[in-house]
Design a protein that fits this description.
The complex is a heterodimer of chains A (266) and B (347).
Chain A: E1 15-26, E2 29-40, E3 44-48, H1 55-62, E4 70-75, E5 78-80, H2 85-90, E6 93-96, H3 108-112, E7 119-120, E8 123-124, H4 126-139, E9 143-144, H5 156-169, E10 174-178, H6 186-202, E11 206-210, H7 214-220, E12 223-228, E13 231-237, H8 243-265
Parallel strand pairs in A: 3-11, 3-12, 6-10, 10-11
Antiparallel strand pairs in A: 1-2, 1-4, 4-5, 7-8, 12-13
Helix pairs in contact in A: 5-6
Chain B: E1 6-7, H1 21-35, H2 39-55, H3 62-87, H4 95-113, H5 117-140, H6 146-165, H7 179-186, H8 190-208, H9 210-220, H10 222-227, H11 232-258, H12 268-281, H13 293-313, H14 320-343
Classes of the chains: A alpha/beta (266), B mainly alpha (347).
Chain lengths: 266, 347
C-alpha cells in the first residue's frame, strides 16, 4: 500500500508488537486493507469485528502463517519479516488456535510437551515431563488432579487451559488467542478469563484475544480494537468504552451495509 | 488464581462405599488390567489354549507349540509394522506382496549378480524400504488415499514378481544354506525369537519414544500435530518404509523355513489381511491414533491357535474363515464398547 488510508499511531516506549499498514489480498478478495496495530508489554488487547472483517487473516499474518502483501511488522522495536510459523515462534509469538492442537489420545503431560519432548537418550523422560507439567500447571493456577489423564476426558475449558499453559511454557512473549471463549459455558469461560487475568498480573506475556462476546472481552482486556473491512476503525482503552458502544459500532456497520445492499438491489 | 480448574479423576477409581483394602486392591488390579487394550484379546488367547488342550492332549506338546509359533511369528512381524502405520492413520495392503518378492530379490542378487549372501539380504530389505517410500510419497505428496496407493503397488509388485520369476518356485540360494538359513527362519524357534525381539523393540518405540508419540499424534489429530510443528509427512512415510522392511524380513524368514522361494505361497493377500486382522483384533483402531504392538502379537496368536486347534480336532479348515471373520467383528464391536466405557472412566 503506497497510499496509506490512516496514519500509523506514534510509537511508544514499551512496545512488543507493532503492525504498520499491513495489507493482504487473496486473489480478488482484499482481506486486510490497511491495518495499524500495536501491543504494549503485559497488555491484553481485545480484537473484535464481524465475521469476515479479517480477524483471522490478521492473526495468521502476525503468527507467520500468511505473508503480508504490504506493510511492516516490528517485534520489540525491530522490523521483522515473518517467514513461517516456526520463525514467528522463535521470536516468541505463539498462537492458541481454536482447535487447540491437542491430541485426544495422549495424556495431559505428553500434550504439554508435544514436539518438545524431554528425553534420556532415545527414550522419553516421562517422569520428568510429568513433574514439570504438574509444576507448571500448578504455577499457572491450573489445578490438575491427574496429568496422566487422556486429554479426551477433559472438558473444553480444561483443554483450553492446557493449550494456553503449553504456549506460555514454551516461552511465548506474545500470545494470540483465537476465540478462546467460543463454544464454552459461562463457568468454563470464567476459568479462562481468570487464567488470562492471572497472566496479565504477571506482566510477562502480552496477549491479543479474538472474541465475539463483548462483555467477557471488556472484563479482561486493557484496550479494544475493532476491525472492519480490513482496517482498524476503533481503538480505545477498555475504561473509555462499553458493551453498548461496541455493539452499536458493529450493528451500525451491519445496518449501513444492509441499506447499501438494498439500495443496490433497487 | 483460578484454583477451581480441576481435572477430575475417572469416577470408577474412588469408591464411595469404601470396600476392604484387599478388595479395593483386587479391584484396582482388575481395573488396571482391563484398562489395558491387550486385556480382552489375552483372555481370549488363554481361553483358547484351555479349550483346545481340554479337547486334544497334543495341543500343548512341544511339537505343536512349534507349529503355532511358526504360524504366528512371520505374520506377527508384519502386524507390528501394520500397527504403527495404522496408528499414524494410514494402511498398506501391498505388504504381503513385498513379503513374497523379498526372497526373490535376494535370490536374484545372489544367483544372477553374485552378491554375497548377507549383503543380498540387506539389499532386498533396502529395496523394500524403497517400495515403502514410494507408497508413502504417492500417498502424502500426490494425495492418493493409502488404500488405493498400496492396492496399486500390490498389483504392480505382483506383476514384477510373476514376470521375473516366471511364476516358478526356486531353491534357496546355495550360499545362504547352513548358518544363515538356520538363524533366519529354518531353526525350530528362529522366527519366534525374531518375532519376540521385534515386538519388544517396537512396543518400546510406540510407547516410549518420540517417534511413537508423533505417530500417535499424526494419527490422532493431524492438523493439531502439524500446528505443534510435527512433520507429519516424514512420520507417515517412515512408517510406510517400516512396514515394507518388516514385510520383506518376514517373507525371507518364511522362505528359509519352508526351504523354497515360491511366488504362490508365503506372501500375497493372505499375509496382508491376516496381519491387519491380528492388529485389529489386538485393539488397534483403523482410524488412527491408538493401537498396541503387543495386542497385535496376541491377536495373531489367537488366529494361529484357532487354525491349529481346528486342524487337531479334525474340523476342516473351511469354517476357519467363518471364525476369523466373526472374531474380527466381535473384537471390533467389543473395542467400540470398551473404549466408550474407558472414555467415561468406567473400566
Amino acid at each position: 500500500m503506497t497510499d496509506p488510508i490512516s496514519p500509523a499511531p506514534p510509537a511508544t516506549g514499551d512496545e512488543v508488537l507493532r503492525v504498520e499498514h499491513v495489507a493482504k489480498r487473496f486473489g480478488a478478495l482484499t482481506a486486510l486493507r490497511d491495518v495499524n496495530l500495536n501491543l504494549q508489554r503485559g497488555e491484553v488487547l481485545g480484537l473484535i469485528g464481524d465475521n469476515g472483517a479479517g480477524k483471522s487473516t490478521l492473526i495468521k499474518v502476525i503468527c507467520g502463517f500468511h505473508q503480508p502483501d504490504a506493510g511492516r511488522i516490528f517485534v520489540n522495536g525491530d522490523e521483522v519479516t515473518l517467514r513461517s510459523v516456526d520463525h514467528a515462534r522463535s521470536l516468541g509469538i505463539d498462537t492458541v488456535y481454536q482447535d487447540l492442537a491437542l491430541v485426544n489420545e495422549l495424556s495431559v503431560y505428553h500434550n504439554m510437551f508435544l514436539n518438545r519432548e524431554r528425553r534420556i537418550g532415545p527414550l522419553l523422560n516421562n517422569r520428568l515431563m510429568r513433574r514439570l507439567a504438574r509444576e507448571h500447571l500448578t504455577d499457572m493456577g491450573v489445578t490438575i488432579a491427574d496429568v496422566n489423564a487422556e486429554v479426551a476426558k477433559l472438558s473444553g475449558g480444561q483443554r483450553q487451559a492446557i493449550a494456553v499453559a503449553r504456549s506460555v511454557y514454551s516461552d511465548a512473549r506474545i500470545l494470540l488467542l483465537d476465540e478462546p471463549l467460543a463454544a464454552m459455558g459461562a463457568k468454563e469461560g470464567a476459568l479462562i478469563l481468570d487464567l488470562i487475568a492471572d497472566l496479565k498480573a504477571r506482566g510477562q506475556v502480552s496477549i491479543i484475544i479474538i472474541a465475539h462476546n463483548y462483555a467477557q472481552v471488556l472484563q479482561v482486556c486493557d484496550r479494544i480494537n475493532v476491525l472492519q473491512h480490513g482496517a482498524i476503525t476503533f481503538d480505545k482503552p477498555t475504561s473509555e468504552t462499553s458493551v453498548a458502544e461496541l455493539t452499536d459500532l458493529v450493528v451500525a456497520e451491519y445496518r449501513a451495509s444492509r441499506s447499501a445492499r438494498i439500495a443496490g438491489q433497487r | 488464581m483460578s484454583d477451581t480448574l480441576t481435572v477430575t479423576e475417572p469416577a470408577g477409581r474412588s469408591d464411595p462405599d469404601g470396600p476392604a483394602p484387599v478388595r479395593r486392591l483386587l479391584r484396582t488390579a482388575a481395573d488396571a488390567f482391563l484398562r489395558r487394550r491387550e486385556a480382552s484379546v489375552l483372555v481370549v488367547a488363554i481361553g483358547l489354549v484351555i479349550y483346545f488342550q481340554a479337547s486334544t492332549p497334543i495341543f500343548l506338546t512341544s511339537d505343536n507349540l512349534r507349529n503355532i509359533a511358526q504360524a504366528t511369528a512371520p505374520t506377527a512381524i508384519v502386524a507390528v509394522g501394520i500397527v504403527l502405520l495404522l496408528v499414524s492413520g494410514e494402511i498398506d495392503v501391498s505388504v504381503g506382496m513385498v513379503a513374497a518378492l523379498a526372497p526373490f530379490l535376494m535370490h536374484y542378487a545372489i544367483d544372477f549378480y553374485s552378491v554375497p549372501a548377507l549383503p543380498a539380504i540387506v539389499l532386498s530389505l533396502l529395496i523394500a524400504a524403497g517400495i515403502g517410500f514410494v507408497n508413502g510419497f504417492i500417498t502424502l505428496k500426490l494425495k492418493v488415499p493409502s488404500f488405493v496407493t498400496t492396492l496399486g503397488t500390490f498389483y504392480l509388485l505382483y506383476g514384477v514378481l510373476l514376470t521375473t520369476s516366471h511364476a516358478y518356485p526356486v531353491a534357496i540360494p546355495e550360499p545362504t544354506k547352513g548358518t544363515i538359513q538356520t538363524w533366519l527362519g529354518a531353526g525350530d524357534w528362529a522366527s519366534l525369537y525374531w518375532c519376540l525381539v521385534i515386538v519388544a523393540i517396537f512396543h518400546i518405540v510406540l510407547t516410549r519414544t518420540r517417534w511413537g508419540l508423533h505417530t500417535i499424534s499424526v494419527g490422532g489429530n493431524l492438523l493439531g500435530a502439524t500446528e505443534a510443528g510435527i512433520r507429519a509427512t516424514r512420520v507417515k512415510i517412515g512408517n510406510f518404509m517400516l512396514v515394507s522392511v518388516l514385510g520383506a524380513f518376514a517373507g525371507i524368514l518364511e522362505a528359509f523355513r519352508i526351504n523354497s522361494i515360491d511366488p504362490n505361497i508365503g506372501g500375497g493377500t493372505r499375509i496382508t489381511f491376516t496381519a491387519i486382522a491380528a492388529a485389529v483384533i489386538g485393539g488397534t483402531a483403523l482410524a488412527g491414533g491408538s493401537g498396541t504392538v503387543i495386542g497385535a502379537l496376541i491377536g495373531m496368536l489367537v488366529l494361529a491357535e484357532l487354525q491349529n486347534g481346528f486342524n487337531l480336532i479334525g474340523i476342516s479348515a473351511n469354517p476357519f474363515f467363518l471364525i476369523q471373520g466373526a472374531a474380527i467383528l466381535i473384537s471390533m464391536i467389543a473395542n467400540q464398547y470398551l473404549s466408550g466405557l474407558r472414555r467415561q472412566g468406567r473400566t
